[in-house]
From TrEMBL:
It is an enzyme of class 2 (transferase). One of its GO terms (molecular function) is glutathione transferase activity. This is Glutathione S-transferase. CDD domains: GST_C_8, GST_N_GTT1_like. It comes from the Bacteria. PANTHER family: GLUTATHIONE S-TRANSFERASE FAMILY PROTEIN (PTHR44051:SF21), GLUTATHIONE S-TRANSFERASE-RELATED (PTHR44051). It comes from Bradyrhizobium elkanii. Residues 91-212 form the GST C-terminal domain.
Length: 214
């Protein structure tokens, strides 16, 4: 990668792509937005399905590399811009726990909260990817209680992922507003990058709604 390379972020406001945009801002990475109006269904059209057949955002492109899946994107970008200090080095003892908690988001938290939101019975505990909802959430709460960040004093890309996820899931009542979760989410939401992108997202979402006649 050269200093002239720019990340293209396939984006829609107030979606999972918001976290990636906040991460790019925190990294100081050069990027361009390829905006999709999801209210108008642009993510399901052929042009974008060629990028991500699942029709989801975020996705990113950098040169010949196309990356989908939020967890992969966070690991990839934070490693590309190590000078920002948001990822532990390979020989750092925190690297393993950092990867653990990023993976935990995609493999355990997301399936658990979707089942919980949809009021679906989880699979038997021996087959469930997250054991059960309360156990999954309890493990996360115990880790965050060590604070102020997921890995203690060290702020990493994982905190952007989790801070935004908890903000959204608590807002919609999917995750209970426990003190540890609330304080942690507020800490991440107070960061300037989060504030900038939240404001930009509000404006873009209003434009999309108007364009789609919603």
């Amino acid at each position: 990668m050269t200093t002239t390379d720019r990340v293209t972020l396939y984006y829609s406001p107030q979606s999972r792509a918001t976290g990636t945009r906040v991460l790019l801002e925190e990294l100081g990475a050069p990027y361009d937005l390829h905006v999709l109006n999801m209210k108008a269904g642009e993510q399901r059209k052929e042009a974008y399905l060629a990028i991500n057949p699942l029709g989801k955002v975020p996705a990113i492109r950098l040169g010949d590399a196309l990356v989908t899946e939020q967890v992969a994107i966070f690991i990839y970008l934070a490693d590309l811009f190590p000078q920002a200090g948001l990822t532990p080095a390979l020989n750092d003892p925190c690297r393993g726990p950092y990867l653990r908690w990023i993976a935990y988001y995609g493999s355990s938290f997301e399936p658990a909260v979707i089942d919980h939101f949809m009021k679906r019975e989880p699979a038997p505990i021996t087959q469930s990817p997250y054991a059960d909802y309360d156990t999954m959430l309890g493990a996360l709460e115990a880790q965050l209680a060590k604070g102020p960040y997921l890995l203690g004093e060290q702020f990493t890309a994982a905190d952007i992922l989790w801070g935004i996820a908890l903000s959204w899931t608590m807002m919609f009542g999917i995750v209970p507003k426990r003190d540890v979760f609330v304080r942690y989410a507020e800490r991440i939401a107070a960061r300037p990058a989060f504030q900038r992108i939240s404001k930009a997202d509000d404006e873009m979402a209003a434009q999309h709604a108007a364009a789609a006649g919603v």
